[in-house]
Inverse folding.
């Protein structure tokens, strides 16, 4: 149950499991065992150029341009999500994401969908605990028209009749997700683990908070959080930087700065166990969380490696110990990084009568990795797998858009594919030990959902 910032609309964004051939190619790239292949990649990567600019109103514009690409991708990253809400407007970020597609003074919701379809765009939006992301991948010749539409999404009309109609959709969505055990146990785990901390607030909100939310509350939230100084505009692929910034200036220069930033306090979770009995369910769903490195930590790559070694859904220690042996349907460990905090998240789905014994086996696995670390072979295999993910997700501009925007949002830096691959390759067993000494994988928070009563 790997999660990338819990994006509601695209839960599980980019593919995380790749065939063995991809691992072999990545290994060849990193270790330079194939000079022809490596040289080819070097030439391609060297064509990529990074640019950045900030408008007087605070809007940050970044782009990684690749003239060899056959497409372009562009997206607005709004630094706002569930953690930036108040109890009275819980769920407003996700609701507002829906409302953005209802159009502005010139375009209706039907116009928005029609124009995106006319240019053949692959478009969507997502909301997480701390980010709302609007994006589109298109052919380069349609960048101007697509950006016109994306810019309008940032300044929707927020009409009351649209608001009232979409509220019913949101309430239905809340009910739908509450019926999904995997989501329900995750949502409750976040609420428990980050109790009293903004990260514990639900992305969807509650039926009560959405029912009571008014369009005026949403308009006020939009005015505060969607200001230019709280936005990052990212673009990747085949585009002209001068023309693009001229286009952005035309559409965005008059936007007000808004109220940027957020108060960041590191979470200090306390040990707790919560069991939610659901007699009608056939399986038990359990999530266990413990502190992990925050998004700006130098240990984040080591955390990605150890989560792959222990919890990869098709090759991690938990998979071989519990899933391959038939003891569980799912047993994974993911690393979730946030602004100022992080969390290890263990997810188990199994037969109810095997819950206790499986949790004992998980404890043995994480105790062993905390005390002894991984083997050299495990480290090498995990490096190859993570490198494969980086390379394969970067082959298209849309894949690079996610990485480009995330690095700028959380760390204020540009990182090329080569930068990430080098950091992965340079990781040592000592780095892993340092990580596990500071952030041991644990069972600080345990939440169970299913027929097991306690």
């Amino acid at each position: 149950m790997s999660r990338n910032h819990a994006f509601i609309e695209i839960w599980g964004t980019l593919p995380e499991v790749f065939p063995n051939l991809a691992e072999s190619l990545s290994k060849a790239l990193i270790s330079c065992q194939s000079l022809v292949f490596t040289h080819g990649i070097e030439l391609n990567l060297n064509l990529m150029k990074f640019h950045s600019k900030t408008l007087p109103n605070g809007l940050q514009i970044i782009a990684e341009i690749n003239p060899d690409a056959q497409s372009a991708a562009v997206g607005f990253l709004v630094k706002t999500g569930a953690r930036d809400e108040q109890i009275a407007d819980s769920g407003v970020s996700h609701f507002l994401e829906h409302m953005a597609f209802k159009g502005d003074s010139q375009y209706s919701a039907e116009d928005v969908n029609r124009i995106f379809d006319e240019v053949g765009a692959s478009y969507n939006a997502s909301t997480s605990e701390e980010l709302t992301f609007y994006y589109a991948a298109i052919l380069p010749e349609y960048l101007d028209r697509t950006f016109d539409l994306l810019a309008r999404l940032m300044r929707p009309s927020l009409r009351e009749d649209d608001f009232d109609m979409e509220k019913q959709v949101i309430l239905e969505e809340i009910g739908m997700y509450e019926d999904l055990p995997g989501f329900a146990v995750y949502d409750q785990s976040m609420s428990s683990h980050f109790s009293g901390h903004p990260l514990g607030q639900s992305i969807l909100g509650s039926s009560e908070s959405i029912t009571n939310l008014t369009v005026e509350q949403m308009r006020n939230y939009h005015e505060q959080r969607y200001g230019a100084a709280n936005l990052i505009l990212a673009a990747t692929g085949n585009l002209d930087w001068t023309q693009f910034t001229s286009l952005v200036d035309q559409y965005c220069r008059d936007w007000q700065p808004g109220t940027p930033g957020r108060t960041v306090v590191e979470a200090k979770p306390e040990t707790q166990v919560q069991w939610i009995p659901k007699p009608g369910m056939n399986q038990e769903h359990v999530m266990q969380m413990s502190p992990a490195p925050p998004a700006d930590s130098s240990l984040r790559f080591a955390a990605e490696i150890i989560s792959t070694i222990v919890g990869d859904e098709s090759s991690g220690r938990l998979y071989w110990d519990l899933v391959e042996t038939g003891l569980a349907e799912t047993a994974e460990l993911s690393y979730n990084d946030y602004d100022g905090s992080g969390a290890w998240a263990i997810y188990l789905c199994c037969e109810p009568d095997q819950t206790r014994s499986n949790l004992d086996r998980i404890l043995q696995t994480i105790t062993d990795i905390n005390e002894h670390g991984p083997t050299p072979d495990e480290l090498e295999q995990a490096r190859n797998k993570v490198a494969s993910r980086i390379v394969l997700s970067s082959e298209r501009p849309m894949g690079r858009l996610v990485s480009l925007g995330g690095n700028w949002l959380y760390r204020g830096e540009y990182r090329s594919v080569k930068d990430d691959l080098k950091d992965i390759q340079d990781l040592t067993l000592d780095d892993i030990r340092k990580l596990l000494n500071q952030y041991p994988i644990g069972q600080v928070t345990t939440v169970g959902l299913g027929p097991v009563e306690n």
Residues 1-43 have pLDDT under 50 and may be disordered. The CA atoms of residues 102 and 109 lie 4 Å apart. The first helix runs from residue 20 to 31. The chain is about 45% helix and 15% strand.
